[in-house]
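Internal QA ticket QA-208
Title: Verify multi-chain structure generation after dependency bump
Assignee: T.L.

Test input:
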Amino acid sequence: MSSTPSGEEGQAPPAVELRGITKRFPGVVANHDINISVAPGTVHAIVGENGAGKSTLMKTLYGMHRPDEGTIHVKGREVRFSSPSDAIKNGIGMVHQHFMLADNLTVLENVVLGAERLHGIGNRAAARIRDLSGQYGLGVDPDRLMEDLGVGDRQRVEILKVLYRGARTIILDEPTAVLVPQEVDELFDNLRELKREGLTVIFISHKLDEVLSVADEITVIRRGTTVATADPSTTTARELATLMVGGELPVPELRESTVTDRTVLSLDGVTVHSGDGRAVIDGVTLDIHEGEIVGIAGVEGNGQSELIEAIMGMRSVASGRIHLGDDDITGWHTLKIREAGVGYIPEDRHRHGVLLESSLWENRILGHQTKPPSVRGPWIDKAGARADAERIVAEYDVRTPNIDVIADALSGGNQQKFIIGREMSGDPRFLVAAHPTRGVDVGAQSAIWEQLREARAAGLAVLLISADLDELIGMSDTLHVILRGRLVAQADPTSVTPEQLGSAMTGAGLHGDEGTDITEGDSGDDTADRNGGGA
Amino acid sequence: MSETTRAGASRSPFPALLIALLGVLVTVALDMALLWWAALIIGVVLAFAAVVLVDRRMPEVGRAGAAGTKEEGTTLHRTLVVPTALVLSVVSGLLSAWFLDLSLIEPVAAAVGAFVGSAVAFLLYRRLSAMLALSFAAVFAAGIIAIAVTALVLLLSGIAPGATFARMMEYGTRPNSLVQIINDGTTYYLAAVAVAIGFKMKLFNIGVDGQYRLAALMAAAVGGHFVLPPVLSQIVMIVVAVAVGGAWAGIAGYLKVARGVSEVISTIMLNAVATGITAYLLNTNRLAVEISTNNIGTPPLPEGSWVPGIPAGFLGSEREIFGLVLLAIGVGVGYAVMLNRTRFGFELRATGQSQSAAEASGVNVKKMVFLSMLFSGMVAGLVGMPQLLGSSHYYALDFPTGIGFIGIAIALLGRNHPVGIAFAALFWAFLNQASGILPFDGIPQEIAVIAQATIVLTVVVVYEVVHRWGRRYQQQQIGKELGTTVAGPVETETTVPAGTASDSGDAPSGDDTPGEAGTRGGEAK
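Actual output:
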């Protein structure tokens, strides 16, 4: 392991060195004896699956909390951070996964916000931003309005913000999660530029091929501790995966086709308007059959949420019809649609899926509050709801001591498993699954995929929306691409690559696939992108 | 786990009886030598110790708290749950003995009190969950802080706090004071339940004040002008009051649903409108008649339209408790059942916790907003009834006002819980009543208002702090229990930001406004 006592043999001490870092939350060890040495002028990747302790570690390094044991050294000097501003003073900056930018301000205003003392807020600051942008090849114009920028540009503004504050070491927390493959390549070019200029980048990810392509050194974290340091030139993704999870990574895939010709859900020219009258869903026509999983690929904010909400009756449809089986469900109330046999795994489980402060058995009732076993007439059937909650916990392997704990006490993956169990109960005909495996660990992920496969085999029709292109390609029978509220392309999941899908998602066309090329232009700064940043 | 709990519960009567007997015997024996309360405290403490010993010997009896985690032996359990259970059992023993002492002879009262205390000790040691204990501890802590602040204010004003508190204690527990406390508490309870229905939905019905005044005026006018046969008359008046209160709150509900008007604004304004309407109608040309030389009001109700009081002989008082205290109890039971047992109550709580989740689950949020506002107003309409039908028998210029604002403070103090509100209402009434003696000693009566305001603020703040801490603690406990030393908690760590974000979105707004309301309640006084 790279815990050689500082870098005496090299001429430069490590840009950042973490020695024996342990962080306990009362009763729990989140990080345990972590040793990482990051050489200056390199891209150092830290990989581990969801929940391995990467974020806790980076929060320690960025001064958001203090380690219980161990020391942090910057350029060979021991430092103690009590807040992120201490970290910035020592040249460590962080770009968070979720951007912290104000849409209605310009790039300049966003960058100087909170750092007005450095170069003022006027021309001097603008000049500095242009300098930095030119020096590192970021291509950021200080006068553009933030809401006109796409996701990739926003990320570059975030990086610039950190540089503007004088950071020499930049932590990027899952930077590629919000990007399509092409944007990822651009980001990596930026990172190489930063490296060339002598900056150090710490890159957190769980996507192994990306890590292998950009990193100079890789540290693997498993169960809160550093298990290995790998050299990307001699390591394969498979080896990394084994180090990461202590086994094989699950692969999303479907077995033999179970698609039938019985249509369950059919959308016919569905158009949905936003509050200001813009069409956020524009003439979507789609059929989903029994035993079929239809995937929708798209950059976040291109109408996926609105499509789901329209189907679920949470948003009114401006024109077009939605049929469930033989019923025209256009304009039906959410409750009636749910009663008709539609399950809903929401994209944001905390906002739409659970009552965080209620117990699991009460959460069992949510969304099914008119159906047995949870309810008898106007009365809550406590015994029935409890029994069925027990069943879900057992069948879907929800790790919980019992069904009286509040939902908030469970980890995200277990909350998600509970939601899926709940939505699968009562034998739905049709399931809306939005990001079903987002933020869950590897074990839960493969369990969720297996459940979707089983339900599909039993004849369930599924609308799958995901940001994980591998999941979409692996789990879909049919794959559509959504762009600015329109279904612009249909791809064959057996042959399409993530790169092809990525270019279709950004409107560049789906090359070499069924000839369903896209007719729209390829302007990058569409209005839809701006929702992606805020999401 | 629940199986073992059930088994433990079914096995409990025998040892419980033994332990209670032990407590009673010790108390009776010591009663010969010591003051009754000292004897009782020792008796109950011994009983509690016996419970602990017995429990140690039968470790197989599982115990599930609300959290359901194994709490036995954890630090929290040792340092918090056990002491809280002990204090609660002693207090309940003392209270019941004191209460019984009013009508029974002292040794018997002490013995029965000891029995109650020991039984409670047995129950609580087994069943008190960490979360409930935390709530009690929070209330204790808040109470101590409030007393300290009040004492400080007294000290700074040059008044001896100890003597003042003793005087209030003495006066507040006189039989006539007790009757007054129960009667005031009845009114406050109804007002607080009305507010709590809104609070459960995160709706702020500040208009309870206007709703109950208008409702009481209309009911009194109907009762005074149309002479109906007994029983029917009372029913008609109550129905009128409920209808008027509901309609008045319904306006705010409709405005909120149809036009998006904040219910805070509309109810405040409707209060002012209600004041204007009452002033307009309460005129000798319209609904009112002259009652005395400088008071006008609705025609007094015929005696057949009154609700007879309950003689308070068992408290040693000549006065009567409002008959409508039974109505208040009924409303409390109805509120509890509605909230916890019905689909409507579930949807109400779901909407209050997360409007977006409720919507995604098919709850018609607009309908829920309107209905809960309507129900809140209907209960508010009842607020004036105990006073009108039980005591004043007409609505005049001197009809009590401002109870709606007190209701807000009490709902906060009682955490919207049907039982919690009952204690809070009685406590509030106690402070009001007990401070009545102070002017005779030259001590400003406003001391009670300071105490009330402080306690609302401290309870709201302390409770929230304790609640958050408890939630974190629970998460960690679960992480530990599941043995996923790393994956569990860290996962929580990564998913929590969204949770806390939504939390800090709701919670502070929920916190700040109650704080203001608390002061408002104080000011209104």
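Spot checks passed. Residues 348-426 of chain A form one domain.
Status: verified.
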